[in-house]
């Protein structure tokens, strides 16, 4: 009787060990310019076919979340990558209990709670410490989320500087991917086509903007929906970011009836949709003011999606009690 029990014990140990096996997770980004490797000071074209030449491309990547094993979430906390288009990225995200990867989520920029801190508090090697050329615009504006520079125009002699900043442009990206498994290593390999950062942006006359709006906003949205693809060829999509108290306030929440949604100056969306737990749109608002009274709904959980520039980029949970 001892032998079967011993075998059973060994089997349980092996199974438990495999279930709790730790995987080294790496993030690899291939810097691309169309089908070619990205390079500075090289004649290229925008997606519209206009002449262009990059001289700088730096951006922050943060807020990494791994979705795996049936929807489990593993957050890669306190991690910021200062990505430069000329320096390969293949960084260890830690060792985690992941068997089957399903999706990676991340944001371009720096989270609001870190975006307005003093860069000098960090050691010189830290990604958020002062850099040259600078990636920090000032305490009020925070960091440059993306710094794209180059030359446009027929002769590639028109100065182009598009720097995206501001909490409003911190948006989460999601990409379906299983990664590449090799032994105990899992590599999440992404292709980043930086030519797509200029999708729909006119560069022939030159551009000079350091802002959270206009071409800077367009470039941020391009990073969300056009720049990144997985190694399997899956496109990126926007994962609506949760709204913060500095952007809007929903009160009361939870509620048994109406709630009031108050927006900070400059944060009023173009439209609002209310979704129930099944993802069905149950209400929509088109004429948005700085203070909006939401119509009462039946008891349950709802998601209020805020639309800016025709894209739902912010969301907030709304709870209706019986």
Question: How would you sum up this structure, described in words?
Answer:
The structure is a single chain. The protein has 322 residues and is mainly β. It is built from three helices and 25 strands. The chain has helices at residues 2-19, 112-115, 214-227, and strands at 23-33, 36-37, 43-45, 51-68, 72-75, 80-84, 89-96, 101-108, 136-138, 142-152, 158-165, 172-176, 180-182, 185-193, 207-211, 228-230, 237-239, 241-242, 248-251, 259-263, 271-275, 281-285, 291-294, 300-308, 311-320. Strands 3, 4, 5, 6, 8, 9, 10, 11, 12, 15 and 17 form an eleven-stranded mixed sheet that branches. A hairpin with a 5-residue loop joins β10 (142-152) and β11. The chain is globular, with a radius of gyration of 23 Å.
Briefly summarize what is shown.
Helix content is 11%, strand content 48%.
Tertiary shape: globular
- Percent range of helical residues: 10-25%
Q: What summary fits the major beta sheet? A: 11 strands, mixed
Count of DSSP-assigned helices: 3
Number of strands: 25
Question: What share of residues are in beta strands?
Answer: over 45%
What does the average pLDDT come to?
Answer: 89
Q: Give the end-to-end Cα distance, rounded to a whole number of Å.
A: 59 Å
Protein structure class: mainly beta
Extract low-pLDDT stretches. 12-19
Radius of gyration: 23 Å
The string of secondary-structure elements, in order, is HEEEEEEEEHEEEEEEEHEEEEEEEEEE
């Amino acid at each position: 009787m001892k032998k079967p029990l011993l075998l059973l014990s060994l089997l349980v140990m092996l199974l438990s060990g495999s279930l709790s096996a730790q995987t080294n997770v790496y993030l690899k980004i291939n810097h691309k310019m169309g089908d070619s490797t990205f390079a500075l000071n090289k004649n290229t074209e925008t997606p519209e076919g206009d002449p262009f030449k990059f001289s700088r491309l730096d951006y922050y990547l943060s807020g990494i979340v791994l979705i795996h094993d049936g929807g489990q979430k593993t957050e890669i906390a306190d991690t910021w990558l200062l990505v430069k288009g000329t320096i390969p990225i293949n960084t260890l995200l830690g060792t985690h209990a992941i068997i089957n990867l399903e999706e990676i989520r991340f944001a371009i920029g720096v989270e609001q709670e870190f975006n307005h801190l003093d860069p000098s508090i960090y050691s010189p090697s830290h990604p958020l410490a002062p850099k040259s050329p600078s990636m920090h615009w000032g305490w009020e504006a925070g960091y440059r989320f993306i710094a794209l520079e180059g030359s446009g125009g027929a002769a590639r002699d028109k100065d182009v500087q598009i720097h995206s900043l501001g909490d409003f442009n911190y948006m989460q990206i999601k990409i379906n991917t299983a990664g590449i498994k090799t032994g105990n290593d899992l590599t999440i390999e992404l292709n980043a086509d930086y030519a797509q950062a200029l999708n729909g942006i006119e560069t022939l006359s030159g551009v000079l903007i350091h802002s959270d709006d206009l071409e800077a906003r367009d470039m941020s949205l391009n990073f969300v929906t056009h720049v990144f693809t997985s190694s399997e060829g899956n496109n990126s999509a926007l994962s609506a970011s949760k709204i913060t108290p500095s952007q809007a306030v929903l009160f009361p929440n939870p509620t048994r009836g109406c709630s009031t949604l108050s927006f900070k100056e400059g944060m009023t969306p173009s439209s609002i949709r209310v979704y129930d737990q099944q993802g069905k749109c149950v209400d929509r608002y088109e004429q948005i003011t700085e203070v909006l009274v939401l119509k009462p709904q039946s008891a349950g959980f709802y998601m209020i999606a805020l639309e800016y520039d025709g894209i739902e980029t912010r969301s907030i949970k709304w709870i209706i009690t019986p």
